[in-house]
Design a protein that fits this description.
Layout lengths: L6 H6 L20 E3 L3 E3 L3 E9 L3 E7 L8 H4 L1 E4 L6 E9 L8 E9 L30 E7 L1 E4 L3 E3 L3 E9 L3 E6 L12 E4 L6 E9 L8 E9 L32 E5 L4 E3 L3 E3 L3 E9 L4 E5 L12 E4 L6 E9 L8 E8 L33 E5 L1 E4 L3 E2 L4 E9 L4 E6 L11 E4 L6 E9 L8 E8 L33 E4 L2 E4 L3 E4 L2 E9 L4 E5 L12 E4 L6 E9 L7 E9 L22 E2 L2 E2 L2 E7 L3 E4 L3 E3 L3 E9 L4 E6 L11 E4 L6 E9 L8 E8 L22 E2 L2 E2 L2 E7 L33 H20 L1
Parallel strand pairs: 2-8, 10-16, 18-24, 26-32, 34-42, 44-52
Antiparallel strand pairs: 1-3, 3-6, 4-5, 4-7, 7-8, 9-11, 11-14, 12-13, 12-15, 15-16, 17-19, 19-22, 20-21, 20-23, 23-24, 25-27, 27-30, 28-29, 28-31, 31-32, 33-35, 35-38, 36-37, 36-39, 39-42, 40-41, 43-45, 45-48, 46-47, 46-49, 49-52, 50-51
Length: about 800
């Protein structure tokens, strides 16, 4: 199922990155341009110096495989910016969905937003939309730069209580540490200058990294944060103890040590700051606090300004270590019911128990930090009671989004909009919404999307009301007249934005009546590959043995209705797991199983396999055989029956052929598990008093209660197993050995034995209802009549 290469890709086959026209020219009136400089990166982000987009769009980062053309044009995309409005943009940070692990030449390429949805769909569309910008001469606009994969670090000037400092941001290409050196490093004291080190940090971006200092800093100094590797992979910082033999520093593109400098000033003067905010009344964030000796930040309401010291307390933070803290989350014990002035106050931990004891001790413990004038250290902020949502950048399989914090004053929903919202698509931008949420604070709200994300993009969580009090989200169906968004004091919707990283997305709804294949509804693969179906033993750790089938090679982009040949469905019904896999060895052959997992591994989401489970039910098949027999008329023995889903074997008499679908039932077996059964003795509820025909018919247990309800339900439940030719049946002659036999007028057969009609495919699945069974009687009659003629 190879995708055709669109016109855009054919153009890209001609691209020469080194000689592309327009590179590095920024600010032309109607021609896009871009420039990118050589740089050092932790491998997860790169910075594009300048981008000019005359009509808006994106800047994508391609790797050098772009020059290979063909599918590599798509797979070379390592990351893309958010939508950029028309005009100039400087220092655009692009997050890479596919991080760099070694030095590389990267290509910055402006892309248009050809479908106007503000979502970069170049890869997911197979190159059909959002193609690259070109010069007047038709050349692709690009610029390239060498990127050294190492580390970056940044740290701001700050005050300290002496025991710790805060590093703003660290990006590491591989796991390691941030060591804090004092200014003696500048005099050559390589080892003695180390005054503290962070805990082990994995590869990636880390913000607000606290470094505990070995000794309290008592004087202002220049401190130097320096990222170090973990060269011996023991997650312990051994640079000093090994005298530099292990865990050396990361180097930049010039071979220099990666570091930053910051002026750190010891201070015993606490500070706290909070901006005006919108809240649902149950949760607030304090922007920054400096606590020289550690402690807490407490939220008081405006009555504290009138002297209500204790009654004004609405909530307090967890214990905060000495030093600077940013974005401090506080859940309010006493929610706000109306807008008010909030007063964040810095409090000490006077009894060193890391518990906030100020109100319980009536002010004897954990009192506030004070200014030089003896006043409590506070700030004030206006709180508008409405709602608040917040989340961070995340990886996803495209089917779900988790919003970290949702605070609603009146209950409602949190809805995920895509970036087309900012272009005016208020309704069409809705991708999915949560279940109804009661008033209050909710953490980690998981939302299943109705319209999955097929590519990395910006998502917009938005708090919505339940204006008609029916606990159903009616914003879209009412065309915006119901369940509108919560608003800030300025009248804007309450929203947050975050970047969702999507490398593979699968839509898989399962299948009823699966035969030799199962269809996966949709697959989008950033780098091409396969989609594999595993059975439920995968969930027990059977990674290789659980594989039931895999697709043919799928190129980069979106593929609909992918049919996958499978072997059997275990037990007739099972949870199948659709899992997108890479083509790691680029041979377009699925080698995951034969390589014992070393090749063609799965696409990952936050380090775990990207999986989508769904129920697959096998085609309902059955066979039955019954022989001519002589009994006392109260029992019938069925020679054998095989039922793929379990159920029953029912004995009908010959009146079935006259249309007596229900009244012809003489008796049925106990519930039979799925599988093969032999010598099934069935006691008849209505015994035979004279010779006649018995018709053995396997029935499903459609309501899964292991009770035969075909008769009592009027044929609506527990219908027969069927094939394209009708019900699965077998007939035989029954001779009653006692009493007057009569003339045997109950549709006797010619005495043939073991006649059977078995499943040949095309099953109706869960059995037929009463109306359908009646329609099948003619088929049964014709089958049995044909046998008598023979």
């Amino acid at each position: 199922m190879h995708r055709s290469i669109g016109v855009v890709l054919m153009t890209l086959l001609m691209v020469s990155v080194a000689g592309a026209a327009g590179a590095g020219v920024v600010g032309a009136s109607h021609v896009a341009s871009t420039s990118i400089s050589e740089q050092t990166s932790g491998g997860h982000t790169v910075v594009v110096d300048d981008v000019y987009l005359p009509e808006g769009g994106f800047v994508a980062i391609h790797d050098a495989s772009l020059n290979n053309g063909g599918e590599d044009v798509l797979t070379s995309v390592r990351g893309t910016s958010a939508y950029l409005e028309a005009g100039n943009h400087s220092n655009v940070t692009v997050t890479l969905d596919d991080p760099l692990t070694e030095d590389a030449t990267l290509v910055a390429m402006p892309h248009r937003d050809t479908n106007g949805d503000r979502v970069y769909s170049f890869v997911s569309s197979g190159g059909e939309v959002d193609g690259p910008s070109t010069t007047e001469g038709g050349d692709i606009v690009v610029d390239s730069a060498n990127v050294t994969v190492s580390a970056t670090v940044s740290m701001s000037n700050q005050s300290t209580g002496g025991s710790s400092v805060l590093v703003d941001r660290v990006e590491l290409s591989e796991g390691g540490f941030v060591a804090m050196h004092d200014s003696s490093l500048l005099d050559g004291a390589t080892f003695d200058s180390v005054v503290g080190v962070s805990g082990y940090l994995g590869a990636g971006v880390h913000e607000n990294v606290r470094v505990e200092l070995d000794e309290n800093q008592t004087e202002q100094d220049t401190l130097i944060p320096m990222p170090h590797k973990d060269t011996n992979d023991n997650q312990q910082y051994d640079f000093v103890t090994s005298e530099g033999e292990a865990d050396g520093p990361f180097l930049d593109n010039n071979g220099e040590i990666v570091l930053d400098t910051a002026t750190v000033t010891p201070s015993d003067q606490a500070t706290v700051s909070m901006n005006d905010t919108t809240t649902g009344g149950h949760f607030v964030s304090v922007d920054e606090a400096y606590l020289p000796d550690g402690g807490f930040v407490t939220i008081h309401d405006s009555t504290v300004l009138d002297g209500a010291v204790f009654d004004s307390i609405r909530g307090t933070s967890d214990y905060l270590a000495p030093g600077t803290h940013e974005n401090i989350h506080i859940t309010l014990d006493e929610p706000l019911n109306e807008s008010d002035t909030l007063v964040p106050m810095a409090h000490r931990d006077t009894n060193d128990n890391q518990q906030y004891d100020f109100p319980e001790s009536e002010g004897e413990e954990d009192g506030p930090y004070t200014t030089e004038g003896g006043d409590p250290v506070v700030d004030t902020a206006q709180a508008n009671v409405s709602a608040k949502v917040s989340t961070g950048d995340f990886e996803t399989n495209g089917n779900t989004v988790t919003v970290h914090h949702v605070d609603l004053s009146e209950g409602g929903f949190v809805t995920i909009h895509d970036a087309s919202l900012f272009g005016g698509a208020v309704l069409d931008s809705v991708r999915g919404t949560s279940a109804y949420l009661e008033p209050g604070f909710h953490s980690d709200v998981n939302i299943t999307l109705d319209d999955p994300l097929k590519t990395s993009q910006v998502v917009v969580p938005m708090a919505h009301k339940d204006t008609n009090d029916n606990q159903e989200y009616d914003f879209v169906t009412s065309e915006g007249s119901a369940d509108g968004p919560y608003a800030t004091e300025a009248g804007n919707p309450v929203v947050d934005t975050a970047r969702a990283s999507v490398l593979a997305q699968v839509t898989f709804d399962g299948e009823e009546g699966a035969g030799d294949s199962v269809t996966v509804d949709s697959v989008t693969l950033h780098d091409g590959g396969f989609v594999t179906l595993h059975d439920s033993t995968l969930l027990d750790g059977a990674v290789l043995e659980s594989v039931r089938g895999t697709s043919e090679y799928l190129g980069p982009g979106t593929h609909e209705n992918v049919s996958i040949d499978i072997d059997e469905v275990p037990g007739g019904e099972d949870t199948f797991v659709a899992m997108p896999h890479r083509d790691t060895n680029d041979n377009q052959e699925y080698d995951f199983v034969t390589s014992e997992g070393s090749a063609d591994g799965p696409y990952l989401v936050a380090g775990s396999a990207n999986v989508v489970p769904a129920t697959v039910t096998a085609e309902a098949t059955a066979s039955v055989s019954v022989s001519d027999q002589t009994t006392d008329g109260s029992t019938v023995t069925v020679d054998s029956a095989t039922l793929s889903r379990g159920g029953f074997v029912t004995i009908h008499d010959g009146t079935l052929l006259d249309g007596a679908v229900i009244d012809s039932v003489r008796g049925t077996s106990d519930y039979l598990e799925a599988g093969e059964h032999s010598d099934i003795e069935i006691s008849l509820d209505t015994p035979y008093e004279e010779d006649g025909t018995v018709v053995a018919m396997p029935h499903l247990d459609t309501n899964d209660n292991q009770e035969y309800d075909f008769v009592t339900s009027g044929g609506e439940a527990d219908g027969p197993y069927t094939t394209d030719d009708g019900p699965v049946i077998a007939d035989a002659s029954l001779t009653v050995e006692s009493g007057d036999m009569g003339d045997g007028d109950m549709n006797e057969t010619d005495g043939s034995s073991g006649d059977e009609m078995t499943d040949t495919g095309g099953s109706s699945g869960d059995g037929a209802g009463f109306g359908a069974v009646v329609a099948l009687v003619a088929v049964v009659a014709s089958v049995l009549a044909a046998r008598r003629l023979n």
